């Protein structure tokens, strides 16, 4: 497990960029954190490495954004997902088997459906500093 403290959005993006260098095809990154914690900023940083031409936006309404790259890169927002049937109908399992790299925000909603091996990225706001974040990255094996 690794832990970082960032003091700006740019620093959060930089941690995402550095983390992305360690990822391989078929990796899954489960993102946890409150609204406004910096999940999309982290993914934006990762995209600068994985798909440099991508313009990353939160997939709040589309549920998944696809970014073409040498290894395809997928960015999910699971906030509106309620159950396994919803995951199935959106093609979640097809994305998992595609060989691409998946980042999924709001994984609190889909914990039972996460793959057997994945990374967790948890981002929390620091209590006394609205700009600072604590980012914890760990690899999980079930």
Tell me the strand order in the biggest sheet.
1-7-6-2-5-4-3
How many beta-strand runs? 7
Helix/strand class: alpha/beta
Give the proportion of residues in helices: 10-25%
The number of helices is 4
- Return the CATH class: Alpha Beta
Strand percentage, roughly? 25-35%
The rounded Rg comes to 14 Å
The secondary-structure element order is EHEHEEHHEEE
What is the terminal separation in angstroms?
Answer: 16 Å
CATH architecture: 3-Layer(aba) Sandwich
Tally of individual domains: 1
Q: Roughly what is the average pLDDT, rounded to an integer? A: 93
CATH topology annotation: Rossmann fold
Biggest sheet statistics: 7 strands, mixed
What overall geometry do the principal axes of the alpha carbons give? globular
The CATH superfamily turns out to be P-loop containing nucleotide triphosphate hydrolases
Low-confidence stretches: none
Write structural notes for this entry.
25% of the residues lie in helices and 33% in strands. The protein is globular, with a radius of gyration of 14 Å. 35% of the residues are buried. Helix 1 crosses helix 2 (39-50). It is built from four helices and seven strands. By secondary structure, the protein is an alpha/beta fold. Strand 6 (117-126) and strand 7 form a beta hairpin. The chain has helices spanning 9-20, 39-50, 84-89, 92-96; strands at 2-6, 28-32, 64-67, 73-77, 101-105, 117-126, 129-141. A seven-stranded mixed sheet has the order 1-7-6-2-5-4-3, covered by helices on one side. The protein has one domain (2-141): 3-Layer(aba) Sandwich (Rossmann fold).
């Amino acid at each position: 497990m690794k832990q970082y403290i960032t003091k700006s959005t740019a620093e959060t993006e930089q941690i995402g960029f550095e983390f992305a260098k360690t990822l391989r095809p078929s990796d899954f990154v489960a993102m946890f954190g409150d609204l406004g914690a910096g999940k999309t900023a982290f993914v934006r940083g990762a995209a600068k490495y994985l798909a440099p031409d991508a313009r990353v936006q939160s997939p709040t309404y589309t549920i998944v954004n696809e970014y073409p790259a040498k290894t395809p890169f997928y960015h999910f927002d699971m906030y509106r997902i309620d159950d396994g049937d919803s995951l199935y109908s959106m093609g979640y399992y097809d994305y998992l088997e595609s060989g691409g790299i998946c980042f999924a925000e709001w994984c609190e909603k889909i914990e039972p459906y996460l793959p057997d091996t994945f990374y967790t990225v948890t981002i929390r706001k620091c209590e006394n500093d609205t700009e600072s974040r604590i980012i914890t990255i760990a690899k999980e094996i079930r």
